[in-house]
């Protein structure tokens, strides 16, 4: 027999947006429940770096520049007005503590209002004993650190330098020693587990293995969520925070002309929340967008490239054998260029080209410097190796003369320290993941030592960015601007407040949590 349970607020999705919404509701005196179709909680949050971009109103000029005029000022202002409150609230009601990521710039630090020192925060390492009751159902990370090390975003920056910087070795020693202090969670794992602990303390149930089958409508308003076992009714409203449509092949082909193979979003992000909202008349925005990033299509799944593109001794070419972008630019911008959305292109296929010096120095896709690369990468055509650039060009199907000329010109830029074609290394963001020992430009190094290597580079993503149109209170809106009564959305189920831009590390999770918080406050009010 199907059963019916009643709450003030029903939240669909157990990532940072959903758990923040439920936690806020509980501390405003409302009864709340979190439901998730997965058997683990955390969604894409648990797979993420866990960074938060939550500045105050001082970032108004910068956010307007990044997001553009298509994002209403009221939404931008709501993020900046309430973001710091969210941080204070979560710190007060969970075991989480946060620290600034030192020196991590905004993604456009030279833009009006941008900061070279950045605004990104990350969770401090969280002792697993503080969340022991729920660690067994925490979704796994995107890529687990070796030997149980508790790696933070700061640590990753130094580890990526491999054998080139003494701080890399010191960081590895610190992380190895940290294992003797007991297991600790970092990045998105810490954020998700800390929020879950807050829900447990507040008495908010989290129903895993409980998928939404439909939104329940009564008397013209969203009044709950249907599940295979019955209906969870909601007196105040429903918050859809169940991710984007990362793994919905039909939706991605329809809106983006790309499939699902190269996303690293959580498997449960199938677009159901977006489709249910649309069924009730909700408007959609930014459906052709994602949190893009150049990725390696490895045999075990896509690998999202960060430092690999910024480090000296690497460059990216398209099928013509020529460079087409500043390789070290923010990852969304690079893929926009790859897809032909910046006035040229598209530039696919694309190849990341390196040499022996690069591989002898730096971490690459989690592989230690000088460590052999998997044979399966070469067998699958993901990686190619050759003793000459001409031979490498033949293997990846680009004109040999063009590739030789490209590398020769690039090597000249490396010597002078100035990329005259694309300005690689001009931005503080480019230099963050560069090699500080490389002079005169930490992002530019010559490719001279064989064997030369080429790696397939594809337009991957952290998740989709478009979804239900919402207002500054996180209410879901129809095309005419009126709200769908009782329905709210946050996180990647909603169209991003960043528009087509990306302000900085944590500009996914920070707004997701903020609009989850605002949804609950609106229902409480």
From TrEMBL:
Gene3D superfamilies per record: FAD/NAD(P)-binding domain, Succinate dehydrogenase/fumarate reductase flavoprotein, catalytic domain
Keyword Manganese in record: no
Superkingdom field: Bacteria
Keyword Oxidoreductase recorded: yes
Alphabetical UniProt keywords: FAD, Flavoprotein, Oxidoreductase
PANTHER family: 3-OXOSTEROID 1-DEHYDROGENASE, FUMARATE REDUCTASE
Name of this protein: FAD-dependent oxidoreductase
Taxonomic lineage: Bacteria, Bacillati, Actinomycetota, Actinomycetes, Micromonosporales
